[in-house]
Amino acid sequence: MDERESGLSADRERGRRAPRLQLVLPAKPLLSGFSVAVGVLLAIALAATVAGVSTVLISIFLGMFLALGLDPAVRALERRGLSRGAGVTIVAVIFLGVVAAILLILVPATVRQVSAAIEAAPETIAAVQQSGWYLTLEANLGVDLSALIADGLRSLTTLSSFLAISGGVLKAGFGVIGAISSFIMVVVLTLYFISSLQSTRGAIANLIPLYRRDRFVALLDEITQSVGAVVAGGVTLSAINALVVFVIQLAVGSSVPAVMAIVAFFVTLVPMIGSLVFLVIGGVATLLVSPTAALVFVVCYLVYIQVEAYVVTPRIMGKAAAVPGVLVIIGAMIGATLLGLLGALVAIPLTASILIIIRKVWIPRQNRQTEPPSE
After folding, report:
1. 270 with 332: CB under 8 angstroms?
2. Per-residue pLDDT tens for 190-243?
3. 152 belongs to a structural domain
4. Where on the phi/psi map is residue 144: left (φ > 0), alpha (ψ -120 to 50), or beta?
5. pLDDT tens digits for 51-99?
6. pLDDT value, residue 127
7. Interatomic CA distance for residues 229 and 79, integer angstroms
8. DSSP label of 374
9. What is the DSSP letter of 80?
10. Are 275 and 331 in contact (CB under 8 A)?
11. What is the domain extent for residue 108?
12. Is residue 244 scored above 90 in pLDDT?
């Protein structure tokens, strides 16, 4: 009797172990391994495809975010009694006017300033080498910096360096052509997205079940308004920042104020940390004018950073992006690591959207759970 019971208990133990082994080991190892291999290959192919069309995807993202940034202006015109079509037309005409002004006024001025800076580079370098702070730095380091600069310039005249530079110039030429085509594509996509924003929202809402559609539409409208306000506010702050940099650079006698203003515009699109980054860039670049000019620029720009943080930003942004500062910095760092400048720009609106979803969906759902789940 004991042996029979022990045999039955052993059978039951094997029966309990069998399902566990079936969960770990596949029933058909060969077919399962083949399926996993095919899945890995498909994932690699998908990643390669995304990398191949990354330029197109970046243009689409830029067009979409620019359209969301223009949407608050369209909504403001609608509140004044204009129809959606009329508001879109007015905003599109103003947007094209700004693009035309950039192409016809700002770009030629920038090219002239860069050309003038290149022509004046030998005189600028010679003046810097004869300045007191340069001689003091050279004496403290105990290194002949002039000889090092001369050796570097001579190395650029060798045949290998010339071929490398020629190849770089050729690549740069193709890069300029690609940048022009991408710019045109972004402008076209922006106009398309801003004109079809309402219909796109309606098409997305139709994919949601009817009993959830009203709540989804309200949440989607809040997200698009928040993202649009963030984008529009960020561009406005960067434009003001670029104007301030242009004025300061003119005051200190810089030969490339427009170039510095353009750099400031794009760098300060990254919130919070962009202004500090450009403080270093602008200070180092202004050293080519003089140490006094660099000091004046750093002091004036630091004053503006404080004014921007406590006066300008609250008035322009308001409560558009109720994102804690630490999340802004973390999101910008992660986005910059993944996608460069575009990732840093997109990270803040995405963070604001995620916070809206958490506040409107996740937290209310958690608050409704007043009792622990039954076991």
Report:
1. yes
2. 888 888 888 888 888 888 888 888 888 888 887 787 777 777 888 888 889 999
3. yes
4. beta
5. 666 677 777 877 887 888 888 888 888 888 888 888 888 888 888 888 8
6. 67
7. 16
8. P
9. T
10. no
11. 54-195
12. yes
Between 23 and 191, where is the model more confident?
A: 191
CA atoms within 13 A on the CB side of 78: 10
Residue 73 lies in a domain: yes
> Which residue type sits at 121?
A
Prediction pTM value: 0.66
For 72-96, b/e burial (b = at least 16 CB within 10 A) is bbbeebeeeeeeeeebbeebbeebe
Residue with tokens 């830029």: 62
Phi–psi pair at 370, nearest 5 degrees: -90, -15
Of 140-144, 217-221, 368-372, where does mean pLDDT reach its minimum? 140-144
Domain count, the chain: 1
**Residue 175: inside a domain, yes or no?**
yes
Enumerate the H helices of the chain as residue ranges.
2-24, 29-52, 54-79, 84-101, 107-119, 121-130, 132-141, 145-155, 159-195, 197-205, 210-251, 257-267, 273-286, 291-307, 313-317, 325-357, 363-368
Give the single-character DSSP code of 301.
H
